[in-house]
Amino acid sequence: MIPRSWLFVPGDSEKMLAKSPGLGADALIFDLEDAVVEERKAPARGMVRERLRTADRDSSQLWVRINGYDTAHLLADLEAILPGRPDGIVLPKAEHGAQAEQLAAELNALEAEHGLAPGSTQIALIAFETPRAVLNIASYQALPARVCGLSWGAEDMAAAIGAQANRDEQGAYTAPYVLTRSLCLMAAGAAGVSAIDTAFTDFRDSEGLRESCGQARRDGFLGKIAIHPGQLDAIHAAFTPSADELQRARAIVAAFAASPGSGIVSVAGKMLDRPHLQQAQRLLAMAGVADGD
Fold first, then answer.
1. 20 to 30 Å CA-CA from 221: which of 64, 124, 213, 283?
2. String of b and e for 35-58 (b: at least 16 CB within 10 Å)?
3. Average pLDDT over the chain, rounded to an integer
4. How far is CA 226 from CA 8, 29, 85, in A?
5. pLDDT tens digit string along 192-243?
């Protein structure tokens, strides 16, 4: 199933690393980047590798956010954590699709070195955190098969462009961030990967979080980053298709399957065309349901 929730966990906190597998997130992101100060980078790598080796993987995928290509830490991060067999790597501040190719090549070599199945380590890109990434949007159209998701970052983008705030007085994103969010959706759609919405940073504002999740689901995001365990229930509720949605999606898929040569079918008194089939298939995939189930 496509992860609905992606919960960040500080990579240098033994307490949080130990507690996190029981929190119920679809994907845990052990963070070696922003959550870890410079002098703690090296010990954090060892702590994350050990947690990868021992953590229960039945309830959550285990990912690691490494430090980006704008630092001297990326290769050391990869070499330290690949023996722990992470499910995936989150690359922050990805500024060009070529960086995904470079990371995939580095993972190829490390998987071979450590006896891991080729291509077994997935990649998610936090691609739209800098102006340069936005200007390079066309480079994300063709990405390595390992890449399964694209996300964006409102806080890092605000810092990069020198903004005083990224929301207006009513709490809505201002124009630069609406643009960045939209471009993330377009790039993910062009690449055929999941769009993952950025974190809602005010973890005490439960109503604001529900609204943010609903907007993200409506617009085409398939999941959302979380910064606090208390955000998980709202994220899961928003990104879990309802029984009615699944029933309708199955009916649409069945109608097209019964008329394989037709571009238009009738379902519940409405005429539907191929884009509706794509939407139905996407929703079933979101729920981890095969078309015929």
1. 64
2. bbeeebbeebbebbbebbeebeee
3. 93
4. 6, 10, 23
5. 999 999 999 999 999 999 999 999 999 999 999 999 999 999 999 999 988 8
For residue 18, the surrounding DSSP H or E stretch is helix 14-19
Give residue 120's identity as a one-letter amino acid code: S
Structure letter (DSSP) for residue 116: P
- Separation CA 31–CA 17 (nearest Å): 10
Strand partners of residue 56? none
**Residue 83 contacts residue 111 (beta carbons within 8 Å):** no
Helical spans, DSSP H, in the chain = 14-19, 41-54, 74-81, 97-113, 131-135, 154-161, 175-191, 206-219, 232-239, 243-258, 274-286
Q: Which of 196, 217, 200 is nearest to 209 (CA)?
A: 200
- Among 255, 252, 292, 251, residue whose Cα is nearest residue 276: 252
Number of neighbours of residue 31 by Cβ within 10 angstroms: 26
Dig out the tokens for 81 from the structure. 């954590």
Amino acid identity at 144: P
Distance CA 165, CA 226 (A): 20
Predicted pLDDT of residue 56: 84
Sign of CA dihedral 221, 157, 62, 25: negative
